[in-house]
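Replying to the earlier thread about multi-chain prediction with a worked example.

Input:
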Amino acid sequence: MSINLDALWPQITVAIGACACLGFGVAGPRGAAAVPWLAGVALVAAATVELVGLPGASPNGMVGMSAFVNPLVCGMGLLLVMLTSQARTTGGSKIDDPYVMPTETVPLMLLSLVGVMLCASAQDLVWLFLALELTSLPTYVIVATSRRQRVAQEAGVKYFFLGALAAAVFLYGFAMLYGATGATAFTEIRQVIASQIALGEVSPFVSCGLALSILGICFKIAAVPMHAYVADVYQGAAAPVTAMLAFVPKTAGFAALFAIVALTGAEPPAAIQCMVWIIAVTTMTVGNVLGLVQKDVKRVLAYSSIAHSGYMLVGLIAASSSPAASQPIHNGMAAVLFYLVGYGLATTVCFGVLGALRNSNDDEVTSYEGIAGLVSTQPRLAALMLVGTLSLLGFPLTVGFLGKIYLFGAAMSASHRWLVAIAVLNSAIAAVYYLRIAAACYFGEQPTGQERRAVTCAPATLAMTLAGLASVALFLFAEPLANAAHRAAPPESLRQPVATHEAEVRGEESSADAGH
Amino acid sequence: MGGLSIALLPSTRPGSVRSFALINAVLTFAVSLMAAWECHQASPGTTASFLLSSHVPWISAFGLRFDFGIDAIAMWLILLTTFLMPLVILGAADSIKQRHKEFFLWILVLEAAMLGTFVARDLIFFYICFEFTLIPLYFLIGIFGSTQRLKAARVFFLYTFTGSMLTFVGVLYVACRHAMLHTEGWTFNIGALTAALANHPMSLVEQRWILLALLAGFAVKVPLFPVHTWLPLAHTEAPTAGSVVLAGVLLKLGTYGLLRFALPMCPAALVEAAPIIGTAAVVGILYTALICWVQKDLKKLIAYSSVSHLGFCVLGMLALNPEGLGGSMLYMINHGLSTGALFLCVGMIYDRFHTRRISEMQGLARTMPVWAFFMVFFSFASVGLPGLNGFVGEFLTLLGAFKATDVLGYRYAIPAAAGMIFAAIYMLTMVGRVVFGPIKIPAGTTASDLSRREVTSLVPLAIACLWFGLFPNTILETVEQPLEALAEPARALLAASNASSDSALAAAETTAPTFMGTAD
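Result:
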């Protein structure tokens, strides 16, 4: 196995940033104040390194994947770090303020981001496992310490135990893959599986291993049947942390899923395809239907997060079963990457708004009644909430709409008509609760006797506004993003052993494009 | 033009918002008149091609572009929209007591979205505008509506959103099939898609599904009989301006969509389904006419009459002959004018009495003669008194249905004609009760006659009603060719089936390259 360390500079940069943040965090109040800035610098530096590129660095893992995921993760990470400043500035020096996060939150967040970036560049089962765990372990701590309330600790414990269970499941799957093929490096596994397919005797452990790996990773992306933790954990964590939970593990999970599905070279076994199909359909349906009956907006958004995983799995199915994907819109993998951007921005906006509201007990305001009539007291937050929910709904004039076109277009061209129809009906169900949130903000009236104030701090407001504006701007100027997503996921990357030569040609072409 | 009003929007200020919005709307109308004139100059009256077209690249990777272009059909609907808008702002805006800025903002956004729908030459762009009309109206109803506004707004949104999501699947399928059969890549350009479909029609099974998907979105919008239930609620709860725009223009998006997409894309399925859709239309005409008869709420009565009238519109379209199609087109415009005006009249009453119950008012002609004049005038226009605009459209659609023996025939035309009589009955009963007889108004209110502003908003509508009643050819001549072009595939099918005893449908099924087959 050969690792190109040069290509890991973005990850290394962020990791160094995380260590520096940890150091500054314990160096008195002035040092602690510098932590977010330091984190910002590290993220910007990492993104710059990735975008400018290093001489002689050829990417690890899938062609082009990390070139897309790294800047995305850095950018989103920046927004998320800005959001957390919301929590730390409240209450000032009050020691019993429930919303003072420890200074370790930011460095832990950075470590988690490093994990995601490593996932995107993984080229070995062990590497992938470690990357996934690096993504998750810091989040357990962040959730538990995000606010000084029982619910947060409860959420942390639940998240940790179920996460450990899931990790055991996909580790078992990885072990089976290793047992069946005798290799941990992706390229070798691919070759062994390809030769097994050619001989017509695929080891049953391959299918088993794939199934278990996918099931375990379902925990990361919050898909059925590993979705049970989502609502409680999202509700328990402080809102800025929830925004992170919705985006970071999901990105890592999908990067890992692509790597796993690509192991089979050509098309995954029919049983696996069928399993993913069922997971996708149940995930979106369960997410949307349970989202309808929730009374707490954070829980609603948690179930919506489940539903969105279902939509994105549609892209995965399209990617693994599409015929020669000659055109960008046929590219299911790129569609998922594109969708992740839109989803990340929209959730950042929604949770950012929720995190900015406090009631008289200095507690988060997350009920429908609580946000009622937001437009009359905080018109800007209400407008942001509207943009966020519309983008999640996939309504025109937001990037969410294009994401849906891309996903469903890809699935349609892979002739998954019924899947598209089900997904579309699910979007219609989802409209009910997204609309309820928007309606509460705009048509409702603030219940008398309930205090509600907005905790505004410049970085968090800026982050929300940026994310909201980007959601709309990316609708109008989506071309570069769509192209980048397509370059990041050349369709051949899923079937490298079959069409190695073509993949190389395509890779050269896309790098030439990038050069221009 | 859509772009123009969007560009003007951000400068909306709380101070003199109304006048600003009014000027904006008038300017848009002027621009659209200029555009119409230019069209007229470019090709005197008759052409099927698109004029003033231009496009802005958007996402070339998906084959998406902002394509603009107008033909005579779109032109008239654009004129209707831009003509109604200033009058709406003038006539109905006084009833808005708070949050003025938002109100005018949403009204103008709504106008921009509607214009966008009519000028779009790209399916996705069309769809975007079609969907986006929901948001402004959702807010108009939700914020400014009356007591049950939340429910009305929600029902309205969910009904139409669900329908149009299914339409979205159909649209994707059509584009996807095109991309599979042709090498030049994905495109959503309406012209390219329909042209390709004319050469390689879809198989009957595909057409059925596509028609179903299109109907899901458009029939809800029209609204056709079984899926009309959102409309009375939305109309009653909406503020007057919302109702006028909803009845005047938004419902036409449904018929326009059917005309523009269902006719050329799935002709065989449409011909096959004509009896079903025709029955739904006729049932809708009669059923809602009967509801109107016993209606106690003035606004609801007009809302149900809308459903009834749009039934004629769909019926005419299904006739697939020049009379029916032309009549249907004329009906769209006329219904927009007369029903819009009626909603304005009712809104003026509501502003004064704060009630819509017919039983609470009587004999208003004595104290409000000017209002009574307009009310009677527009009611006549609506029921189709010869000489006014409603008559020509109604007559032509019925004539079309009669003559279309191969699709509809007298079995549909006669009950529909009965619907016309019902319409006369319920309208005149209502007018008789409200306008004439001994005077009776709700306690604590004063029946002051129309102000100059209100009269100004109604007079242009009355003139237009009279003009199109006397000179319907203004519209009919220009739209004849584009309509023919749209109905051409369906006509050809019918002609083929008439010529040979073989069913044209079966022929279509066997000859069409089946994408379903190749994909599976």
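The beta strands of chain A are 357-359, 452-454.

Feel free to reuse this layout for your own posts.
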